[in-house]
């Protein structure tokens, strides 16, 4: 959804920097609603993705109504993280985010091979890296940031802190950086549904959501080669600018488990439980085998 992302990142950074979070969120929502009112094709693709994944019925209709608000919340949270100071973020996440299960991450790190923290484009994922960094975890983030303004904002935020960014479009040698980070005992944050980086092959598919999807095995390769245990971290968005982060054990022994399969199954479960929290709807067709040319 680069269209709405570029639109909001061009229009709203100063608003987010100066206004209270509540006021800034309201203005981002208003601007985003205007964007989708004008860009009906993009809105229609998202609605079609919701209907295709969830099937017909009241649940899909409810999710279609709610998903746009959560998409705009995602961009508000991204703007908040990249345009406010670390002191502000420390206060914000301290007041707004409750955490559960971070002991699973501590236990993974105690094995001495770093830890792979798997999440998805679900809920308030943008709050996960700053929350972990503010808790003192050494964080390495695999991400994409083609918008140069957004990338510079992230680089400013990470400067002088134990936060490392791996960005392919910047020219970073991502795979090399991943193994180096894990060898140093860092927390590697990656998203299991990052379809733009999948190796989509018809010989590798998985049944999820009642559909045949491409199945990228990169996570298995990374986990088994590094020997690093994996945890799952999802940050659920709640009403009134509140959030609940949950961390759980995913694959403590990568040699004995199919890490990618477990991660994909967990992403499926989270999305079916709270479909409005997922925001990759515009890329849903790219994940499906039968939609590929």
Largest sheet: 7 strands, mixed
Helix content: 40-55%
User: What would you call the structural class?
Assistant: alpha/beta
How far the N terminus sits from the C terminus, by CA atoms, comes to 21 Å
Rg, Cα atoms, Å = 18 Å
Low-confidence stretches: none
Brief description of this entry?
With 293 residues, the protein is α/β, with parallel strands linked by helices. Helices cover 51% and strands 17% of the residues.
Topology:
Layout: H1 2-11, H2 13-18, H3 21-38, H4 40-54, H5 58-83, H6 86-96, E1 97-100, H7 102-109, E2 115-119, H8 128-134, E3 139-143, H9 148-158, E4 163-167, H10 174-183, E5 187-191, E6 205-208, E7 211-214, H11 218-226, E8 230-238, E9 242-251, H12 259-273, H13 284-287
Parallel strand pairs: 1-9, 2-5, 2-8, 3-4, 3-5
Antiparallel strand pairs: 6-7, 8-9
